[in-house]
From TrEMBL:
Listed InterPro entries: Beta-lactam-related (IPR001466), Beta-lactam/transpept-like (IPR012338), Beta-lactamase/esterase (IPR052907)
Pfam family membership, one: Beta-lactamase
SUPFAM superfamilies linked: beta-lactamase/transpeptidase-like
Entries under PANTHER family matching the protein: BETA-LACTAMASE-RELATED, BETA-LACTAMASE-RELATED DOMAIN-CONTAINING PROTEIN
Domain Beta-lactamase-related: 18-367
UniProt superkingdom: Bacteria
Protein name: CubicO group peptidase (Beta-lactamase class C family)
Length: 397
């Protein structure tokens, strides 16, 4: 296996860890991309993309990294004064009111505090790909807790909730808004609905190897019928098993449906590492960045059943080193914010280091966050930047 691309000398350890991922950690096909001060310092790829060589143009399913793109769309509108994150959702989406949800704020949707972590009504086959169906089900649903009183990861519903607010405010479907305001101006390899002519570039997802340990989420899903966890796993309309189909790639699924690569992830976050603007494209005002990066949900996650930390729409560093590996999150600096995807993909901005990072792969790993492959690359980047690591895993200057 040959690693292709470029890597600045001072980031040679990133290349070494990327090569170790293939040699020792079961990597099949992947890419890693890093920018510092807006300049690309790492752009590496290699491996197999489903019977063909992984190239610089290969794209893959990045799962919950999509949530970062969806959250960014909301913050673009907020930065322009078109969306009030402290306003009730019903001001933009009147049908959302039933079952005591009139007091649900837009920030509750972004912070995983809305209590709509799973769908109660049966979702028909393919239903998660039907935007109107899903937004109607969620608007009519009773929350699992009083909105704003606790938090729990909205794994499959975040995109419909936040994305519908984006649609109501902007007048554009989420995927069109993202292309018009983010991916198009920045020239990103990142799509919320993948054009059919790009389908040959897709490297299909390879499931994780079965291990002995399972995250508490899955144990509860299998042992407690009717729980949020069982509804999440068992009531997706078959999405997880059909996620690598053309139908799924073409659909708009703002929680987990994004198609991208390491370059697309890192370059989406690049403006956010530089005060909100890159190369003449301003995504948000600089004043919006503390709103995007400040922790608003922290502690025990009612869905994942492990400690998590979220800002308004983005994951924060939560290494959870005291927990089994399958329960751990990602170790970054406290300045950093971004999102991981199921199996280990990751994108984030670190404004304090003026750095952005992206990693995408085909072979999924175990656990809830990144695994040893992605974390080894993050750690190598921070070491190259001269950071040190605290006992809890957080990196600091």
């Amino acid at each position: 296996m040959t690693v292709e691309g470029s890597c600045a000398d001072e980031f040679a350890e990133v290349r070494a860890e990327f090569e170790r991922n293939f040699a020792e950690r079961g990597e099949v096909g992947a890419g890693v991309h890093v920018t510092v001060d807006g300049v690309t310092v790492v752009d590496l790829w290699g491996g197999d993309a489903g019977g063909r060589v992984w190239t610089e143009d290969t794209i893959t399913h990045v799962w919950s990294c999509t949530k970062g793109a969806t959250a960014l769309c909301a913050h673009v509108l907020a930065s322009r004064g078109e969306l009030d994150l402290d306003a009730p959702v019903v001001e933009y989406w009147p049908e959302f009111e039933p079952h005591g949800k009139a007091g649900t704020l837009v920030r509750h949707l972004l912070a995983h505090q809305a209590g709509l972590t799973a769908v109660r009504e049966p979702v028909p086959p393919g239903g998660m790909l039907d935007w109107a169906l899903m937004t109607d089900l969620l608007a009519r649903q009773e929350p699992f807790w009083a909105p704003g009183t606790r938090h729990g990861y909205h794994a499959l519903t975040f995109g419909h909730l936040v994305g519908e607010v984006v649609r109501r405010v902007s007048g554009l479907p989420l995927a069109e808004f993202f292309e018009k305001e983010v991916s198009g101006p920045l020239g990103l390899d990142f799509w919320l609905t993948l054009p059919e002519d790009l389908e040959p570039l897709v490297a299909r997802t390879i499931p994780a190897d079965r291990g002995e340990a399972l995250p508490s989420l899955y144990v509860t899903a299998m042992t407690e019928p009717g729980s949020m966890q069982s509804l999440l796993v068992g009531n997706s309309g078959g999405y997880v098993t059909a996620s690598d189909t053309r139908e799924a790639h073409a659909a708009q699924y703002g929680a987990v449906g994004g198609m991208s690569n390491a370059r697309g992830l890192a370059q989406m976050y690049r403006p956010l590492a530089l005060g909100g603007e890159y190369n003449g494209v301003r995504l948000v005002d600089e004043a919006q960045l503390p709103v995007m990066s400040g922790v608003v949900s922290a502690g025990f996650d009612r869905m994942l059943l492990a400690p998590t930390r979220f800002s308004l729409g983005f994951m924060k560093s939560a290494a959870n080193l005291h927990l089994p590996a399958v329960e751990r999150g990602v170790a970054m600096s406290d300045d950093a914010f971004g999102h991981s995807g199921m199996g280990g993909s990751l994108g984030f901005a670190d404004p304090g280091a003026r750095m952005s990072f992206g990693y995408a792969m085909t072979k999924m790993g175990p656990g809830l966050g990144v695994n040893a492959r992605g974390q080894s690359l993050v750690d190598a980047v921070y070491r190259a930047l001269g950071h040190r690591q605290a006992p809890d895993g957080t990196w600091f200057r």
